[in-house]
Design a protein that fits this description.
Radius of gyration: 22 Å
Mean pLDDT: 92
Oligomer: single chain
Order of helices and strands: HHHHHH
Helix content: over 70%
Number of helices: 6
Structural class: mainly alpha
Low-confidence stretches: none
Distance between the termini: 73 Å
């Protein structure tokens, strides 16, 4: 009789790749994955970042080339496409910075509770989008 009253314990299994689309991550999980994505984005676009930095500071002529890239484009690629790449870089930097500060704060203060993790993740996501929109507005307008 005692065996019948025991609850069945839940079984946790790894999810299959086909289940990823329907899997709902908590905000802290989204921040963690996006932190890695933003770091990889900045790393992969590092040659473009260095080129932009170099052409914007070398001379007045190269600065004119740099600004015409965003207005007229380059070859078959329109200027708005380069603006989107720079907008993605802005988001990557802003999100990576804010998520990094969040991790440093949690490490320094030992604030690793579930409620603080969820609240700080929501703040991180919100601030990242807000600052990206503010900085991106300068880029497009």
């Amino acid at each position: 009789m005692a065996e019948q009253q025991l609850k069945q314990r839940p079984v946790y299994r790894n999810i299959h790749i086909s289940q990823i689309v329907g899997y709902r991550l908590p905000p802290a999980g989204m921040v963690s994955i996006l932190h890695r994505v933003s770091g990889a984005l900045m790393f992969l676009l590092m040659p473009f970042i260095i080129w932009m930095f170099d052409t914007s500071l070398t001379s007045e002529i190269s600065y004119g080339t740099f600004t015409s890239l965003f207005n007229a484009g380059l070859g078959p690629l329109p200027g708005w496409m380069f603006k989107l790449v720079v907008l993605a870089l802005i988001w990557g930097f802003v999100h990576h910075f804010i998520a990094g500060v969040r991790h440093l704060w949690m490490d320094a203060t030992h604030a690793v509770g579930k409620s603080f993790g969820q609240q700080s993740a929501v703040v991180t996501l919100g601030l990242g989008v807000l600052l990206t929109l503010l900085l991106g507005a300068k880029l497009f307008f």
